Amino acid sequence: MSLLKVLKEPFHYKKIDWRNYRSTSVKSDNKPVHPHAARAGKAQKARDWKEATRRILAYLGRRKPVLAFVMVLVVASSLLTLVGPFLIGYSIDNYLLTMQFDGLGSVLLLLLASYIALSLATFFQNFIMVRVAQATVFEIRSDLFSQIQRLPIGFFDKRQHGDIMSRVTNDIENISATLNSSIVQILSSLVTFVGILAVMLYLSPVLTGITMLVIPLMFYGLRWITRRTQVFFKEQQRTLGRLNGYSEETIAGQQMVKTFSREEPVIEGFNERNEALREAGFWAQTYSGFIPKVMNVLNNLSFAVIAFVGGVFAINQTAGITVGMIVIFVEYSRQFTRPLNDLANQFNTLLSALAGAERVFDIMDEHPEEDGVNALPVKSLEGHVAFKRVGFSYGETPTLQNVSFEAKPGETVAFVGPTGAGKTTIINLLTGFYPLNSGVIEVDGYDITILKKEELRQQLGVVLQDSFLFQGTIMENIRYGRLNATNDEVIEAAKLANAHGFISYLPKGYKTSLTQDGGGISQGQKQLISIARAILADPAILILDEATSSIDTVTEMKIQEALKRLMAGRTSFVIAHRLNTIEAADKIIVLQEGTITEKGSHEELMNERGFYYELQTSKNMDTIL
After folding, report:
1. pLDDT 10s digits, 128-147
2. Predicted model pTM
3. The CATH number of 410-426+460-617 is which of 1.20.120.910, 3.40.50.300, 3.30.70.100, 3.40.50.720?
């Protein structure tokens, strides 16, 4: 393979299917985990640095030809490092001490050529390795982000978002730093170690034995410090993730922090986590900082012993040792211990990278959300939904018990009940976010567990109470409902949602850029954009979490009008926050403590004079308790 071909080789992105890569797996009962419960069982993860290293090498192994060329350059540069000291010692013994300078010029030219060749080999090996490292890190980051997109909602319930972000950014950046520099240095040092050992044994077994005396001390010192430092580096990455998670949470909730004047407690909470990170980082860096110092002391000790013993031998002309040979051994002894020195100098980066790699592979080993075997495609739905004896729990306490109801195509079903009764849980189960403990949910007669989740959700339109908008233009946010929609279709959806009016008055209209979560527009306007997005998606089944309780009357009327257009001809499920908004529903389901206590139309439930009747006739009739 030519050098030009190596440098131009495209570093194409190839995904690793870690589900097939794992050697073992842990059985799971597929029960969902409550947000505050312990983590669910998952497949084998990287539990130590050996496993993390093996998996990083699996990524590097995709570019074996390029890495082979790098190895050739590493061997060449390592061998060239042997030439300089040897030629210098040779010149001392054969030219300087004898005062015979014939041929010295040729030796010096050869020495210069070796240094130039060494510089070129070092440059190209570093240049190519950086490309390999960046391409590898690109793939790890892409695989991690892709895995995050495949994980079930339950995973995000029990993880801080900032901690996940820390793994995508900080932990992978640590891997990048190691691959960029440490790998080549360690490989080069190991090759140099073997080459120097062979040459030293050839020149003088006696001086070689003296040089080897410091190796056990170096090995023992490195092992002693490693056992302690590795723990602190893992703790450092863990506390960094906690700090990032806390920072992300408090920054996102600044409005709430300021509303309740919680600035000081938030600062105290940050300082506590920052102090934990400082403490872990201090001990990690302190212990790892011992290594270069210890290595330098042992290196200097080795130099002194070689110089003293070699000098005595040279003066007494013992064992064939000369002044030039002492110079060679002093230089070689420095290079001989360089593998351990390089490992010491790269120790902080190496351990931090391996700790980060374990955290990255920990997420990669989470069970992704998968379709069942031979899952059926979902092209179109009529919207016939049936819950049959459904049971579900986040933890030990049941959330839903023996829930059964039916929604025929085009019907509107509303859920009412106290907070915690299970209204939102029913919606989460219909979308397939969590697996059932018992019972069956059917759509058009098919158990949703045998349907392809992605295609099922494409038939569902969701308008939540807290509408989420992405950073980007209004046009892009509405088009999120159907990415291949034309501009005219987006505008038509906005008109049906009563959003076209306020959008047109904005300085840039549909090209107006929104900050994260729709900053810059009102809550009601965000809701209208969300409705336009749902209209554009044209779903068969609608899920509506009303968001009109904190909106002015005029905006509420616009939203209600838009919702009526959206619900026309579609099966709709409404979580009611105001009772007067659901009186026209075809079926109203009353939930209490996870069970259905009443079911029927508004008139039927009022005639029963049960819990629903009490809600309607209470002083707070517009609010669900």
Report:
1. 888 888 888 888 888 888 88
2. 0.68
3. 3.40.50.300
